[in-house]
Amino acid sequence: MKRPVIFCDFDGTITESDNIVAIMKHFDPPGWEPLVEQVVTGKISIRDGVGRMFELLPSASRAEVAQFVFDTAKIRAGFPELLSYCDRHQIEFLVTSGGIDFFLLPLLGPFPIAQDHIYCNASDFSGERIRIVWPNPCDENCKNDCGMCKTTVIRRYPQDSYVRILIGDSVTDFEGAKLADLVFARSHLITKCEELGLPYVPFETFHDVVRHLGENTIQEGV
């Protein structure tokens, strides 16, 4: 029987809002809004857009930016219960995020997720401006310049051996949704799934995810 594995987005999924957009709105560096619009509409790549957004911020603002996220980010209801469910049922759980390490890792610190199961972008504060580093680039099968390539991670879990479950909400999840056997979607990902004709399960909290997994997925191996 295939083994289930979950690939879970962070910004707007594990957290209730997109922290990168929240950072940009709060600190409001000139030029950030067109970059967000161009990423969402696909006019520029995620890697290009996110990299250019953070270059608008001085490295000296690192602590202030991180503190803003710590003070404002809210973990979506049911997340501890989802992790507990995965542990009980031996479901491998990976965080696959286009977020940045300096705020993402501390927020996930209280939760029992192994470091090697967290995929995200890194950061460099050695220069005058914040520089984003990309330790998880696209493989030869992806040409989307994702930055943190979720499809590359997903392909490490072959479909003939795994039930690949994606949980997400936005542009960084669009390509991964095409590969997944089961998609839990909210926000922009719902719109994209409907455009592409991809089946999905809508969710608002992780309680919804746990409920669906308990009622359907594990037993049916879908």
Characterization of this structure:
The model has no long low-confidence stretch (mean pLDDT 95). The protein has a domain at 3-17 and 74-122 and 133-220: HAD superfamily/HAD-like (Rossmann fold), CATH 3.40.50.1000. Helix 2 (32-40) runs antiparallel to helix 3 (46-55), helix 4 (62-72) packs parallel to helix 6 (101-108) and helix 5 (79-88) packs parallel to helix 10. The protein contains ten helices and seven strands. Strand 2 (92-100), helix 6 and strand 3 (118-124) form a beta-alpha-beta unit. It has helices at 19-27, 32-40, 46-55, 62-72, 79-88, 101-108, 150-154, 174-179, 188-196, 206-220, and strands at 3-8, 92-100, 118-124, 131-133, 162-168, 182-185, 201-202. Strands 4-3-2-1-5-6-7 form a seven-stranded mixed sheet, with helices on both faces. It is of the alpha/beta class and 222 residues long. Pfam families: HAD (PF12710). One of its GO terms (biological process) is L-methionine salvage from methylthioadenosine.
Can you give me a brief rundown of this structure?
The chain is an alpha/beta fold. The chain is 41% helix and 17% strand.
Characteristics:
222 residues; alpha/beta; Rossmann fold; seven-stranded mixed sheet; HAD_sf; hydrolase; methionine biosynthesis; amino-acid biosynthesis; EC 3.1.3.87
